[in-house]
Specification:
alpha+beta; five-stranded antiparallel β-sheet; two-stranded antiparallel sheet; 6 helices; about 30% helix
Length: about 180
Amino acid sequence: MKATGIVRRIDDLGRVVIPKEIRRTMRIREGDPLEIYTDAEGEVIFKKYSPMGDLAEFTGQYAEVLNKALGCPVFITDRDHVVAYSGPNKKEYFEKRVSAALETIMENRAGFVASAGNGMTLEPIEDSAAKASLAFPIIGNGDVSGCVCALFSQPNAYPSPSEGKLLQVAAQFLAKQTED
């Protein structure tokens, strides 16, 4: 843990403001859930809560099944990072940050399907040349908790409607797993 040099006081309602610079760097948005941890030395630690992180083992198995069914690399994200990946070059993708473009897809709550006609491409992971053929947000209890993505298995190997439907159903199924 590193010190930021920023000191904040607790107000009369027990609140503390997390500085804008830290919220921006850590991608903490208004309404994001935070877990609170304490230790024996009196430290209080805030950590972004990820319902997808709670399902790590399950999402890993699900990504493997989707990878075999689609024949292309598949990954599942929370709002910020890849939490499960199945396909070649796992180290290149696992736990990497999602791109701003994928964040926008999640915020807009709309899926992405690459096609020869729309000319759109999606680079779903920061600092990676990988291109996604499909991306569908995971929306449970009205909140976006992540995304299910399939990468191109070969350049210009656009997904079929049934492959798109399969990933869309996967996102809906994972959303059910995050609901209370």
